[in-house]
Design a protein that fits this description.
With 184 residues, the chain is an alpha+beta fold. It has seven helices and six strands, in the order ββαβββαααβααα. The chain is 29% helix and 20% strand.
Length: 184
Protein backbone atom coordinates (compact mmCIF):
# COMPACT_ATOMS: atom_id res chain seq x y z
CA UNK A 1 0.00 0.00 0.00
CA UNK A 2 1.32 3.40 -0.97
CA UNK A 3 0.72 6.85 0.44
CA UNK A 4 1.82 10.04 -1.27
CA UNK A 5 1.52 13.64 -0.13
CA UNK A 6 2.61 17.06 -1.35
CA UNK A 7 3.75 19.77 1.04
CA UNK A 8 4.00 23.14 -0.71
CA UNK A 9 5.53 26.13 1.06
CA UNK A 10 3.74 29.43 0.58
CA UNK A 11 4.22 32.87 2.08
CA UNK A 12 1.43 31.96 4.55
CA UNK A 13 3.06 28.67 5.60
CA UNK A 14 2.68 25.15 4.26
CA UNK A 15 -0.19 23.68 2.27
CA UNK A 16 -0.64 19.92 2.23
CA UNK A 17 -2.48 17.59 -0.11
CA UNK A 18 -2.54 13.88 -0.62
CA UNK A 19 -1.94 12.95 -4.20
CA UNK A 20 -2.51 10.10 -6.59
CA UNK A 21 0.48 8.81 -8.51
CA UNK A 22 -1.46 6.83 -11.11
CA UNK A 23 -0.32 9.07 -13.97
CA UNK A 24 3.28 9.36 -12.72
CA UNK A 25 5.67 7.18 -14.70
CA UNK A 26 8.96 9.09 -14.50
CA UNK A 27 10.85 11.42 -12.18
CA UNK A 28 10.07 14.17 -14.67
CA UNK A 29 6.32 13.50 -14.25
CA UNK A 30 6.71 13.65 -10.47
CA UNK A 31 8.70 16.88 -10.69
CA UNK A 32 6.03 18.43 -12.93
CA UNK A 33 3.34 17.41 -10.42
CA UNK A 34 5.30 19.16 -7.66
CA UNK A 35 5.84 22.29 -9.73
CA UNK A 36 2.09 22.49 -10.43
CA UNK A 37 1.49 22.60 -6.66
CA UNK A 38 4.08 25.32 -6.19
CA UNK A 39 3.16 28.91 -5.48
CA UNK A 40 5.69 31.40 -6.87
CA UNK A 41 8.24 28.59 -7.41
CA UNK A 42 8.53 27.97 -3.67
CA UNK A 43 9.69 24.68 -2.18
CA UNK A 44 7.51 21.62 -2.66
CA UNK A 45 8.15 18.30 -0.91
CA UNK A 46 6.76 15.12 -2.41
CA UNK A 47 6.56 12.28 0.08
CA UNK A 48 6.03 8.69 -1.08
CA UNK A 49 5.78 5.76 1.30
CA UNK A 50 5.32 2.06 0.86
CA UNK A 51 3.96 0.88 4.18
CA UNK A 52 6.66 -0.58 6.46
CA UNK A 53 9.16 -0.92 3.58
CA UNK A 54 10.59 2.44 2.50
CA UNK A 55 9.86 6.13 2.03
CA UNK A 56 11.21 8.78 -0.28
CA UNK A 57 11.30 12.56 -0.25
CA UNK A 58 11.65 14.60 -3.42
CA UNK A 59 12.32 18.30 -2.98
CA UNK A 60 11.58 20.67 -5.84
CA UNK A 61 12.69 24.29 -5.57
CA UNK A 62 11.47 26.26 -8.57
CA UNK A 63 13.18 25.18 -11.77
CA UNK A 64 16.14 23.51 -10.03
CA UNK A 65 16.74 19.79 -10.44
CA UNK A 66 14.84 17.73 -7.88
CA UNK A 67 16.72 16.60 -4.78
CA UNK A 68 15.93 13.06 -3.64
CA UNK A 69 16.32 10.93 -0.52
CA UNK A 70 15.18 7.28 -0.28
CA UNK A 71 15.22 5.46 3.08
CA UNK A 72 15.95 1.98 1.66
CA UNK A 73 17.13 1.76 -1.93
CA UNK A 74 16.92 -2.02 -2.26
CA UNK A 75 13.30 -2.06 -1.02
CA UNK A 76 12.41 0.88 -3.26
CA UNK A 77 13.97 -0.85 -6.28
CA UNK A 78 11.34 -3.59 -5.96
CA UNK A 79 8.56 -1.00 -6.16
CA UNK A 80 7.22 0.72 -9.25
CA UNK A 81 7.16 4.11 -7.51
CA UNK A 82 10.54 3.51 -5.92
CA UNK A 83 12.10 2.84 -9.29
CA UNK A 84 11.01 6.32 -10.36
CA UNK A 85 13.12 7.87 -7.58
CA UNK A 86 16.24 5.73 -8.06
CA UNK A 87 18.02 7.56 -10.84
CA UNK A 88 21.14 6.26 -12.58
CA UNK A 89 23.05 9.18 -11.05
CA UNK A 90 22.00 8.22 -7.50
CA UNK A 91 23.02 4.61 -8.13
CA UNK A 92 26.38 5.59 -9.62
CA UNK A 93 25.51 4.28 -13.07
CA UNK A 94 26.16 5.85 -16.42
CA UNK A 95 22.78 7.17 -17.66
CA UNK A 96 21.34 4.73 -20.20
CA UNK A 97 24.36 2.42 -19.93
CA UNK A 98 22.21 -0.58 -19.05
CA UNK A 99 20.17 -0.15 -22.24
CA UNK A 100 23.28 0.32 -24.40
CA UNK A 101 24.99 -2.81 -23.02
CA UNK A 102 21.87 -4.92 -23.53
CA UNK A 103 21.57 -3.68 -27.13
CA UNK A 104 25.23 -4.47 -27.87
CA UNK A 105 25.00 -7.94 -26.34
CA UNK A 106 22.02 -8.64 -28.59
CA UNK A 107 23.98 -7.63 -31.68
CA UNK A 108 27.20 -9.46 -30.85
CA UNK A 109 27.69 -12.87 -29.26
CA UNK A 110 30.10 -11.92 -26.47
CA UNK A 111 30.47 -15.27 -24.68
CA UNK A 112 32.91 -16.73 -27.25
CA UNK A 113 30.82 -19.81 -28.06
CA UNK A 114 29.19 -20.88 -31.27
CA UNK A 115 25.45 -20.38 -31.60
CA UNK A 116 23.64 -23.05 -29.59
CA UNK A 117 26.82 -24.30 -27.91
CA UNK A 118 26.70 -24.14 -24.10
CA UNK A 119 29.31 -21.98 -22.43
CA UNK A 120 31.96 -24.16 -20.73
CA UNK A 121 34.71 -23.03 -18.39
CA UNK A 122 38.27 -24.07 -19.17
CA UNK A 123 39.45 -27.21 -17.33
CA UNK A 124 40.53 -26.28 -13.77
CA UNK A 125 39.19 -22.73 -14.10
CA UNK A 126 37.50 -21.15 -11.12
CA UNK A 127 34.31 -19.21 -11.78
CA UNK A 128 35.20 -15.67 -10.70
CA UNK A 129 31.72 -14.30 -11.33
CA UNK A 130 30.29 -15.77 -8.12
CA UNK A 131 32.39 -13.43 -5.97
CA UNK A 132 32.25 -10.38 -8.21
CA UNK A 133 29.88 -7.63 -7.09
CA UNK A 134 26.92 -7.09 -9.38
CA UNK A 135 27.37 -3.64 -10.97
CA UNK A 136 23.58 -3.34 -11.31
CA UNK A 137 22.86 -4.24 -7.69
CA UNK A 138 21.03 -1.60 -5.69
CA UNK A 139 22.55 -0.92 -2.27
CA UNK A 140 20.57 -1.70 0.85
CA UNK A 141 19.81 1.25 3.10
CA UNK A 142 19.48 4.98 2.54
CA UNK A 143 20.55 6.66 -0.66
CA UNK A 144 20.37 10.17 -2.03
CA UNK A 145 20.82 13.62 -0.59
CA UNK A 146 20.92 13.40 3.20
CA UNK A 147 20.76 17.18 3.59
CA UNK A 148 17.56 17.50 1.53
CA UNK A 149 15.63 18.83 4.57
CA UNK A 150 18.48 20.34 6.61
CA UNK A 151 17.59 23.99 5.95
CA UNK A 152 13.93 23.20 6.73
CA UNK A 153 14.62 21.91 10.24
CA UNK A 154 15.50 18.20 9.88
CA UNK A 155 19.16 17.27 10.17
CA UNK A 156 20.84 14.46 8.25
CA UNK A 157 21.05 12.39 11.45
CA UNK A 158 17.33 12.84 12.15
CA UNK A 159 16.46 11.84 8.59
CA UNK A 160 18.58 8.69 8.83
CA UNK A 161 16.90 7.59 12.06
CA UNK A 162 13.30 7.90 10.83
CA UNK A 163 11.42 4.61 10.96
CA UNK A 164 7.66 4.45 11.30
CA UNK A 165 5.44 7.43 10.57
CA UNK A 166 8.31 9.28 8.91
CA UNK A 167 5.96 11.74 7.20
CA UNK A 168 4.57 12.97 10.53
CA UNK A 169 8.07 13.55 11.86
CA UNK A 170 9.16 15.34 8.68
CA UNK A 171 6.03 17.52 8.75
CA UNK A 172 6.67 18.33 12.42
CA UNK A 173 10.28 19.31 11.70
CA UNK A 174 9.39 21.60 8.78
CA UNK A 175 6.38 23.12 10.57
CA UNK A 176 3.64 21.48 8.50
CA UNK A 177 2.19 19.00 11.01
CA UNK A 178 -1.20 20.72 11.38
CA UNK A 179 -1.87 21.05 7.65
CA UNK A 180 -0.74 17.48 7.06
CA UNK A 181 -3.32 16.15 9.52
CA UNK A 182 -6.04 17.78 7.45
CA UNK A 183 -5.28 15.51 4.48
CA UNK A 184 -4.51 12.25 6.26
Amino acid sequence: MYFAALLARTEDGWEASDTELDDVETLSDLTDLAREASVDEDTVLVYIEQEDAWFGVVRVDGEEDPRIYVSDASAAARSSYGEILLTDEMLGREPGAEDEIAALEELVDLDGTEDGEPERPAPGAVDQDDDAPDPDAVPAGPIGELGVLADLGMSEKELLTLQTDALAEIAEAVGAAEVLESVR
